[in-house]
Amino acid sequence: MAVWLLREEEVCVFLCHGRFSERYAPVRASAGARFVRLDGHQPQDLNLRPPRAPMSVKPFCFPSTELVAHYSAAPTAPVTATAPLEARCLVAGVRPCELRAIGYLDRVFGHLPVKDPFYHAHREQQVVVSVDCIEPHASCFCSLVGGKPYAAEGFDVNLTPIEGAYVVEAGSQAGREFVEQARDNLTEATGADLAARDRVRRAAMEELEKANAGFVPARPPEQALAEKEDAEIWDRLALGCVECGACTHICPTCHCFYLLDQAHGAESYERLRSWDSCMWSGYSRMAGAPLAKPNPRSRFRSRFANRFLHKYLWSPKQWDMVGCVGCGRCIEACPGRIDLRRVIREVSA
Fold first, then answer.
1. Entry pTM
2. DSSP code for 215
3. What is the bridge-based pairing of β-strands 22-27 and 34-37?
4. Which end of the chain is more exposed for a tag (fewer CB within 10 A), N or C?
5. CA within 13 Å, CB half, 86
6. pLDDT in tens, 273-287
7. Residues 174, 282 within the same domain
8. Residues 142, 77 share a domain
9. Per residue in 189-198, is it b (16+ CB within 10 Å) or e — as a string?
């Protein structure tokens, strides 16, 4: 497989190749990198090297709110699904943990016979340009869940930052076509370039392992959680939780949603799909007479435990993947300072 070299000053020009309706990449911001449309931004605004952005790339394939159907008030009127998005989109700056998250969502929303047309309409129109982590965030822990700070699969194009340049690899047919269109901005990578790539990857992995040495669980989380699905330890671990749902909304793999119908004019209605959170008291509550269909998780500790059980116990059984990619965003977002790594370590002790 051909490997190329891209000079730092050519990155913005490189990302502007190909025909796309929208292009997104992380740019510099006071609170860390944030994803914005590239239109109108200068090359110096790009922020591909620092730690991953606080925002997940999940909204690019699974928006927080999406119109899925509309219908009229007539009793016999059919519910008409809205047309899936068709705009071709490039998303650059996707981190290796995000690639694993997208792979997880691909399994969830592509599970036959219920393939989600809206999710796949977004995914099929995307070209993903990933970037290796050379400076992991303080809360990153991908190494604890089987991940690495550099990409091995799941990308269309991958960039590895080295001094003054990026090593470029294509991982799909769409990626190879993109790279071919940008050949004027690329030179063939040398052995020294590849050696530099391997050094920054090793350094990032060593940094991650050192930062997370104190959080290594005593035994596999799946085994420990299977024994403590409803243990009293969850009461203590949940003491700092305020049920705000920040952890689930910032998570790149959480995918629960609800459907909301609302008026859209005098005689028409629209159906929206919005993110839901298992941390909220109304999660999974069902309609009906009092006590006929109770909330299946009326106790808070069961809702708190559900998040960890789903990611580490049930996801491996259902999707053959851990439902956590170790991005650490939930740790940053939590106002109660609950650290997922600490919870798993204590449950497994």
1. 0.91
2. G
3. antiparallel
4. N
5. 2
6. 999 998 887 776 666
7. no
8. yes
9. beeebeebbe
